[in-house]
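Let us work through a complete example step by step.
Step 1: write down the sequence.
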Amino acid sequence: MTGAVLRDWPVATSAELDTAADALRGRTVAVLTGAGMSTDSGIPDYRGDGAPPRNPMTFQQFLKDAEYRKRYWAGSHLGWKRFDGALPNDGHRTLAELETAGIVNGIITQNVDGLHLRAGSQRVVDLHGTMDRVRCLTCGQTFARSDVSERIARANEWLDAPDSFELGPDGDVEFTQIADFVTPDCTVCGGVLKPDIVFFGEFIPTEKFSEASALLQSAGALLIAGSSLVVNSGIRLLDQASKRRLPVVIVNRGVTKGDPRATVKIDAGTSETLAELALRLTA
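Step 2: predict the structure and record it as tokens.
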């Protein structure tokens, strides 16, 4: 996964780009990104146009049943190498450049892939956590995902995934042959390990949302890129921007829940649209 993926997506018109740039120009811009931000890096999204139906495991399922944890860790381990190998795309790099230029004050992301940091963004609020850390649900100890991955590989030498496996948005693959799978546990207390991400059915940590709100509070506009705004955290931030009557620009393929409140909505892919928008903001 080393470059942009060519797709038949709508393309923003010059008029749309000019209007969006006018709405943002002269203001400090907070950015909220979702899964559509990373599709050009080869990571699929949950709800974008053409995305297949997905049924992600919930936090409650993960907690209550060791068999669910086996299935999760087996699939997550098989997908980890490909997920971790994804590279930032032009959209990630554009936002990092806008931050360096003082136009963007930071990134609030619903993604767990770490690509904004790898692209050079300095202030990133990972609302839903990050897949490169693992946390013990019993004692709170954290581990590098690479270390846990090595442990899983040693304990499950038989486990292998062909390249034909379809990668999921959170870096997992569908895998059901789990009878002999050895689930990793905490080397400190023997407790249950879980990637340091927010599962479906789990609440975003209060301090994370407070950090995101503070970033938005210090901005004069909100740019939403690649999010359908189905997840509640995004809507709550949009609510805050709307109450302050901030300009809101949404760039996303397809309809979002925030479209009626957007100052400008551009139905197009994020990478090329952000690059064109940046040219207008830095001119």
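Step 3: interpret the result. The longest helix spans residues 66-84.
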